[in-house]
């Protein structure tokens, strides 16, 4: 992967390797995809105000969260159905994260089980929960607790499925439903097809265990048919059931962050689900600049991050860690576990370069004074 010099290069390789239906699932957003564009444009409008004549001969990109220090200010975000990109995709992501000393977040919609991922690497693992049914959700929480996951993430921006037009047009489903068009698409991508056939087509593994065999729940999760009644009272029950750190993912306003803080959340991930749910909401980097400093709890950031410079902007705006979603998935699709590692190394190198050129030897020192006011 030495020929890849930016994340877009991994994206192009992923696009060549994947059938159109699968690439569109990875790449797509809600409705007309204005949210996708807004997330990227938001990072480009926040500009650095660099310091000069500071000693940046030694640079430190490490960051702290919950009293633990990580060598990079990164985590791998929870993403679903990664087995359609590469068989064993969740395991590859977990191992790559462990190799670089950063947390890996496993999605409820994974194609490897909670337990398989727990034994696949010795790195720090967080579990992201979708609540389809309260009882089933608590079963997943217990499984994650028993398997040694250190942090629980509750995603709260999927009461119903966003309108994902690319998936509607392509007929993307798990398990796959073959049609002549899909069969032709697969035939035109023989490496991907051979790999899927050799390992077996992916399924939502957490719903296909002896503990939770439920085809209807798999279908409901694919369609994001969540428990739309889940509210702050239900969150209180979840809070009582989970003894470790609990993060809310999908908030995007100061008011909601305040509610989360009062309800006992340990941190918040400012996120709009990568632009895949509600199209016309603020980019999380913009929300972060408005919220940071107005609450005591840690703030994390995802949605739209494609470079080390984006990560440094997020840290300057007030994030404790930044989560990588599509960026690492492009690497996974392009070259498996090695591709994920290459993406992390590329972003780490870009973080280092950005720190040097902005005049900040340590990412922990950078703050809002390093960013110009957004216009």
From TrEMBL:
Cellular component, GO annotation: plasma membrane
Start and end residues of each FMN hydroxy acid dehydrogenase domain: 1-375
Assigned EC number: 1.1.99.31
Record organism: Granulosicoccus antarcticus IMCC3135
Alphabetical list of Pfam families matching this protein: FMN_dh (PF01070)
GO BP annotations, alphabetical order: aerobic respiration
Keywords of the record: Flavoprotein, FMN, Oxidoreductase
Gene3D superfamilies in alphabetical order: Aldolase class I
Enzyme kind, highest EC tier: oxidoreductase
Organism taxonomic ancestry: Bacteria, Pseudomonadati, Pseudomonadota, Gammaproteobacteria, Chromatiales
Molecular function terms, GO-annotated: (S)-mandelate dehydrogenase activity; FMN binding; L-lactate dehydrogenase (NAD+) activity
Protein name in the entry: (S)-mandelate dehydrogenase
Cofactors, names only: FMN
